[in-house]
């Protein structure tokens, strides 16, 4: 931290004497030290600096020198004030007004303090100067005759050099930590948490869909979204020129928002905030940019890895849905640390942008739900987790922005096909009464899969005793009949046989299955049973 005005006044070798504190508490950092005696010093001043002056261009307060009156006229003229006064009393008023104008202009320029060197011309600080300083509430200190202004400047410069070196040292260490975090399997969460720790504040990553993917402090979600919206508006206004947004909110809370992207592709934005004050601002800005750079470097590689693994995850979920748990397990091994154990729970989540290769919310499952496996299959996201992992998965779903979800118990490897259907049914029940319709669901999703499978196996059991060739012709006839809405002529045409042949086969099917195909209820049951048998055969 650069030297503060309080620390400067406390340096014993300088022997500086505080005349008026100007309401400062001594913790304000000095930006620069400027020594000048010109009356228009405010034109060259900068906010946060300390002005050192002996005021040799100002007349003495008692007007004891012969040229004091002419000097007073010259100074007032230079500042745009009237240079005419009649007598000693009006000259005294003009002198007071000169100092008031001088201090007022320094205050407006943002000068932090005035250091007045005595006994170079003025034996003491003029009372008019002290009155003006008090009027404008500025800090004023006295510099003794034996102390050169260069000693004060060197003290400040030496402190600033040490501060610069310290900033470089701190930032080198911070950059190294941030880039190490970016090598994590989940770089977003790792960098967010590391940035929050380094800034002694909080951090968040928001994707292009304005979803909070990771945040170090959940109580700051609303604040993070407000800053993200502000950054998006700046982007809409300034286009590609908008990269970063810095500011101070509520008088003390610093924030930094950085867009993260590469080669015209935007990944999202990083928000970092802290309540630390003082000269920490420069370090904080650099820290926010360094964290964004770390993600900008790592995310393309992470996205490519996730894109490649997503295809394997989809295959694994397809194998589970088909009841081939052993095949799925061989695919899962290289992808997940957790090996499914039973009983387990299968979650179905939609809609979730599963076609997006850059879906950071889906990428975050890995760290948020360590005791789980997941993948996209048939336009839905599926998460299989242990009994102890359910709470973590449900917290992730709640914070992910998913609109609907459902789940089903998985008793063992053989129960996966039924569990997939039951999870969808549970999702549809959760959707009931919401803005999303359930009219687009499939017939399979209307019935209990385990019960339907049992019914199908029992219904078609008599066909197993029929010779293979006849079994094949009967099942082919049944398929074409259902496809043709039980129209005998259409089915015969598609099978390329006489309609009497189809009629004879229908009689035999009705006898073997114990159903009357003229009964609408029997047709519905037949269609459900056949569809489940067909799916099992395809699997």
UniProtKB/TrEMBL annotation:
Protein name per UniProt: Translation regulator
Stretch forming the signal peptide: none
Gene3D superfamilies linked: PucR C-terminal helix-turn-helix domain
Start and end residues of each Purine catabolism PurC-like domain: 97-158
Residue stretches making up the PucR C-terminal helix-turn-helix domain: 474-530
Coiled-coil regions, chain positions: none
Domain of life per record: Bacteria
């Amino acid at each position: 931290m650069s030297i503060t005005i309080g620390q400067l006044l406390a340096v014993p070798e300088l022997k500086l004497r505080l005349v008026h504190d100007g309401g400062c508490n001594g913790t304000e950092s000095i930006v620069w030290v400027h020594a000048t005696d010109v009356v228009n010093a405010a034109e060259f001043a900068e906010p946060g600096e300390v002005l050192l002056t002996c005021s040799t261009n100002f007349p003495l307060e008692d007007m004891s020198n012969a040229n004091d009156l002419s000097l007073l006229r010259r100074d007032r003229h230079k500042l745009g004030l009237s240079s005419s006064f009649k007598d000693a009393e009006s000259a005294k008023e003009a002198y007071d007004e000169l100092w008031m104008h001088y201090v007022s202009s320094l205050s407006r320029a943002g000068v932090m303090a005035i250091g007045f060197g005595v006994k170079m011309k003025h034996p003491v600080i003029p009372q008019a100067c002290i009155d003006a300083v008090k009027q404008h509430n500025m800090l004023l200190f006295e510099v003794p005759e034996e102390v050169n202004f260069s000693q004060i400047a060197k003290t400040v410069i030496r402190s600033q050099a040490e501060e610069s070196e310290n900033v470089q040292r701190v930032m080198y260490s911070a950059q190294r930590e941030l880039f190490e975090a970016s090598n994590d399997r989940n770089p977003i969460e790792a960098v967010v948490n590391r940035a929050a720790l380094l800034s002694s504040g909080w951090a968040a990553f928001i994707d292009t869909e304005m979803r909070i993917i990771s945040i170090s402090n959940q109580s700051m979600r609303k604040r993070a979204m407000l800053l993200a919206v502000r950054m998006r508006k700046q982007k809409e206004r300034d286009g590609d020129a908008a990269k970063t947004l810095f500011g101070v909110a509520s008088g003390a809370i610093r924030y930094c928002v950085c867009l993260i992207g590469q080669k015209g592709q935007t990944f999202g934005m990083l928000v970092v905030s802290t309540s630390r004050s003082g000269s920490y601002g420069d370090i904080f800005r650099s820290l926010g940019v360094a964290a964004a750079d770390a993600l900008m470097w790592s995310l393309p590689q992470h996205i490519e890895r996730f894109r490649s693994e997503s295809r394997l995850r989809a295959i694994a979920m397809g194998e589970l849905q088909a009841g081939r748990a052993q095949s799925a397990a061989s695919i899962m091994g290289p992808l997940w640390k957790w090996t499914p154990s039973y009983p387990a729970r299968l979650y179905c989540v939609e809609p979730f942008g599963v076609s997006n290769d850059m879906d950071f919310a889906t990428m975050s499952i890995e760290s948020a739900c360590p005791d789980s496996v997941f993948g996209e299959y048939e336009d839905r996201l599926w998460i299989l987790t242990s009994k102890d992992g359910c709470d973590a998965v449900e917290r992730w779903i709640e914070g992910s922005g998913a609109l609907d979800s459902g789940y089903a118990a998985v008793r063992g490897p053989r129960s996966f096909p039924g569990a997939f259907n039951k999870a969808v049914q549970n999702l549809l029940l959760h959707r009931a009464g919401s803005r999303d319709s359930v009219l687009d669901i499939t017939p399979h999703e209307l019935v209990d899969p385990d019960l339907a499978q049992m019914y199908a196996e029992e219904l078609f059991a008599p066909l197993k005793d029929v010779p293979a060739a006849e079994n094949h012709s009967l099942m082919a006839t049944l398929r074409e009949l259902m496809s043709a809405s039980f129209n005998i002529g259409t089915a015969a045409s598609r099978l390329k046989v006489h309609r009497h042949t189809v009629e004879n086969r229908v009689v035999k099917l009705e006898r073997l299955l114990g159903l009357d195909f003229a009964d609408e209820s029997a047709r519905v049951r037949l269609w459900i049973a056949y569809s489940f048998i067909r799916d099992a055969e395809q699997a």
